[in-house]
Every structure is written in C-alpha cells, then in structure tokens.
Amino acid sequence: MRRALILVCTLSCFHGTGEGAPSTGEGTSETGGGSTTTGTSAGSSGGVSDASGVATATPTTSGGESSGDTTVGVGESSGSTTGGEDPPPEPPAIHYVGRHDASDPGHVRMGWSGVGAVFRFNGTGASVRLDDKGRYFTVVVDGAVQATLATSPGEQSYPLAQGLPAGEHTIELYRRTEGSFGPTVLLGVDLEGELLAPPPVQRRIEIIGDSITCGYGDEGVSPCNFSAETENHYLTYGAVAARALGAELSTVAWSGKGVVNNFGDDVFEPLPTIYDRLLASDAAPWDFSWQPDAVVINLGTNDFSTGNDPPEAVFVPAYVGFLEHLRSVYPDAFILAIAPTLFGAEAQMVAGYLQSAVDQRHAAGDAAVAFADVNVEWIGSGCDGHPTVATHAAMGAKLAATLQAQLGW
What is the rounded CA–CA span in Å between residue 12 and residue 6? Predict the structure, then answer.
C-alpha cells in the first residue's frame, strides 16, 4: 500500500489573516498543563465510547516528506447537498467541518469550537500534521471515539490510527476547546493508504452560544475552575443533537458572551458583534457560503447573570436585530431561539423576551423562526456551575426532538 501525503482544499477557499490575543471565558483564567498526548486506534469499532480517556505518547516533529511519499493534487470538492437530496459524487478529499480558511490548502486555519476534519481512506493508518493552540481534540475512528488527542503549538505530527485492518476507514477530528485559545492550523494528513471521497453531508446545523455551547467544564466535577482539560465540545448538547439527527455541526460560541452584556468584567464585544468572524480570534470575515438547514441560538445567560441586567426595551430589539442579521445571511434556514440557562422568575421573564422577539419576526413575515426551551433538570454540576456531560446529553436529546418536530427529520 503506497503512503500518501494529503494536502487538499475541499470546500470553498476563504481568506483570513491575523491572529488576536486569546482571552478566557466567564471571568476565569485558563490553567491547563501543556502535556502532549495522542489517541490511537487498534481497529474498527461500531459504537461510541467515552471521550474522556487520555493516552500518553510523544508526537514527532514534522521534518519534511519521506522518499516514499507522494502528493495528492489540490482542488475543491463539489460540496454537499442539504435537505435529504442524494449528493453528487465527490473526488477524494478532506472535508473540513466548521468555519475555516483554506485559501492556502497547505495551511488550513480554523478557530471555533468543534471545528475539524473528516476523511475516508483505504488503508491501515493515518496521522495528522498540526500547528495548534487549541490543545485538545476528539478523534473518532470508524464511529468509535478514541483517547483524547492533546497538541502543542508548532508544527508536529500526531498519529490518529495505526494497525487498522486493511480496507476502508473514516476518521473524524474535532477540536474540543473554544476559539479564545487561538487558531488551529491543519498542515496535512499522512496516510498508509489511499484517500477516498468524504462521507456525504445531507443535513447542516449551526449553533450560536456562550460557555455552555462551548462545553465549558462539562467534564469537570464541581468544585473546579475553567481549564482546557475539562472543556469538551464533542459532548455538548449541540454536538449530541447533531449526531442524533445525522447532521454536520458548525458552532459559533465564546464563553462569557451575551446578546447585549457579557459576563462579569468582560467589556469586549458581545457575541453578535463578533459573529461574522472567520476565526474567533481573527477579525477577518466569514463569507457564509456554508448554508445550514437550521440555526440554533442559545444566548442570554450572561446578559442576566450580573447586576447589570438589560431591560426588555434594550434586550429584545438587540435580539430581533440579530435574528434579522441571521435571516440576511441564511435566507432559507429554520432559526430556533432556545431559552438560556436561568432559574425561577428570571427564566420565565427572559423566555417571554425571546418569545416577543420571535413574534416580531413573525409579524415581519418571517415564519421560519421559533422559540423552545430545551433546558432539563441538571445531573450534577461541572466547573464553575456549568452543566455536566450527563446534563448536556439530556439537553441534546431534547433539542434533537424539537428540531425533528419542527423540520420533519
């Protein structure tokens, strides 16, 4: 089996330059260690296992191509269809998930929670070359979650699967941590085998939110503070719902962000003002060529978690304005505003605000907007009072059922 070095741009190639300084969410500081670990696969498996395990290994510093490597030509795939249609055949390619800049196919830049890559190949093993500040990734081989892949800045090669049975395999790689850590740069994929066309995408969901949507502290056990090690986007309610619905997920979320106000002393822009970014830490714009079938908004928790709660006359117009912007960039998407995580009378008040915003969009002629509450009774508590993996799973099931009912999926 020949060994191939894959450098492929598969979706539309977007431009974005510059890098902002990472910031932390919910007024906390990032304190995780810098160990380098990698997960490997012993073979194909059908189920999804716990993603929290970490296996230690030393990544190798990339040092050019070996004499047996060949380079696959660079090009764009034909893309994937939505709405349940049969997608057209695609050429061999890496499929990038989430907002990304592939204007230089040898340095594909990504930077939001859950971004990553999916590829199929015929062979026995694969590794990825990254220059990454995100620090942790979920690796899925043939549907089975592997040990967590931990990365460090600088160009390095990380094995994803070794010793697989000869044949066709699918590998998925998803960033666990949020964009405030800095960008991920995918430099290439090395295969012990031959690249195939990526799996088809027939449904697409975008989720917009704050720390809960990022997965802040979902793998931690209270009491604990924010850390990269305990944030796992793959096990958030949004990712759970997307997998249940067979949908690709793009997440645009940042800890501490609100619609009008951010959490605590964070005086920087609320989420709607940075929403159009290609990367979280980069002001370069995204071009919205990727069109979702459904958009889910989970914002408002941070607006009403401090002593500076916005009045209805401020919050509702801002939310309506964001809905209008989403409709302008996603003319055909169903938009679902979900209740933020608040409690008691305040939760009922803010739910009323969101319903009012949705009603205003209906009055303006936009019928493809709705409000729902997918909150559940919490099962334990993660870091800094955030939902646990178990709570996310219950929320994800409720969100999936809501989208199924609305869209007939």
Answer: 17
pLDDT, tens only, 174-218: 999 999 999 999 999 999 999 999 999 999 999 999 999 999 999
CA distance 384 to 124: 42
Q: Residue 389 sits in which domain range? A: 204-407
Of 148, 175, 195, which marks where a domain is finished? 195
pLDDT band per the 50, 70, 90 thresholds, residue 101: very high
Sequence-distant (≥ 6) Cβ neighbours of residue 183 within 8 angstroms: 19, 109, 110, 111, 132, 133, 134, 279, 281, 282
Residue 88: predicted pLDDT: 60
- Tokens 């590998």 correspond to 171
Please report the DSSP string for 271-331 in residue order: HHHHTTEEETTEEEEP---S--SEEEEE--TTTTSSS-PPPHHHHHHHHHHHHHHHHHH-T
For residues 104 and 232, membership in a common domain is answered with: no
The DSSP code for 125 is E
Polymer length of the chain: 409
* 18 and 154 belong to one structural domain: yes
The percentage of residues in the chain with a pLDDT greater than 70, rounded to a whole number, is 78
The encoded tokens of residue 274 equal 């940075």
pTM score: 0.80
Query: Is there a single domain that holds both residue 189 and residue 211?
Result: no
Domain count, the chain: 2
